[in-house]
Q: What sequence folds into this?
């Protein structure tokens, strides 16, 4: 089930929780960028790892925000997984 109303409100309106969430997102993006750079033929000199990492974090954030604000009927991990599958499906099609 989605988040309870209390949790949604705390996450949305409490500055310290919002700031911590941004810190976690930034740390995740940095880890992903390093990972994608290792896989990229041009390494860290390429823009691709930056874009790929940003896509993953933005997709995860969108799923989290949807879950928090829409009372989604599925668990957050499942929703994030679905969102990342959408990203992967569209990445190869140029959409």
A:
């Amino acid at each position: 089930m989605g988040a309870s109303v209390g949790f949604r409100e705390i996450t949305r309106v409490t500055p310290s929780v919002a700031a911590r969430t941004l810190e976690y997102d930034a740390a995740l993006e940095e880890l992903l960028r390093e990972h994608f750079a290792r896989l990229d033929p041009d390494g860290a000199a390429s823009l691709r790892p930056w874009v790929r990492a940003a896509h993953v974090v933005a997709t995860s954030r969108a799923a989290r925000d949807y879950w928090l604000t829409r009372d989604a009927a599925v668990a957050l991990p499942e929703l994030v997984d679905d969102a990342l599958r959408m990203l992967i499906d569209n990445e190869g099609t140029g959409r």
About this structure: The radius of gyration is 15 Å. The mean pLDDT is 85. Helices lie at 5-13, 15-39, 48-70, 76-91. The chain is about 75% helix and 0% strand.
